[in-house]
Specification:
With 111 residues, the protein is of the alpha+beta class. The chain has a single domain (3-110), classed as STM4215-like. Helices cover 23% and strands 46% of the residues. It contains two helices and seven strands. It has helices spanning 3-11, 68-83, and strands at 18-21, 32-39, 42-45, 48-52, 54-62, 86-96, 101-110. The protein is elongated. The termini are close together. 18% of the residues are buried.
Length: 111
């Protein structure tokens, strides 16, 4: 799996928000998301990369306090987990008073 494939999976969520890689040039008015890789640790053997994982964050900005939108994202993660080497967990949930958005951040890792 690649970071581009993660982005495609997130943007394919029916009824879900749009996601951008790293940042939006201007944030959409409604729910939106951002995904970005943080690190790509690798395992080397015989002087070459034998295996690499991608460590990334997926951020959702929503005003939906019923967890409906977040559940769709977690369903997407569950589907990816079934098909790939994919792990995820909720990292933080914050309320942003200045924008009135709930900011949910997931930490994901895949190979």
């Amino acid at each position: 799996m690649t970071i581009a494939e993660l982005g495609a999976a997130l943007n394919a969520i029916q009824g879900g928000p749009e996601f951008a890689h790293f940042a939006w040039s201007s944030a959409p008015a409604g729910d939106y998301g951002v995904y970005a890789e943080d690190d790509m640790p690798s395992f080397e053997a015989n002087d070459r990369v034998a295996e690499r994982t991608v460590h990334a964050y997926v951020n959702l900005f929503t005003r939906d306090d019923t967890w409906t939108v977040a559940s769709k994202i977690e369903d997407c993660f569950a589907d990816l987990q079934d098909a790939e080497t994919f792990a995820w967990s909720v990292n933080t949930i914050q309320y942003e008073d200045s924008t009135k958005f709930i900011h949910i951040e997931w930490e994901v890792e895949f190979a």
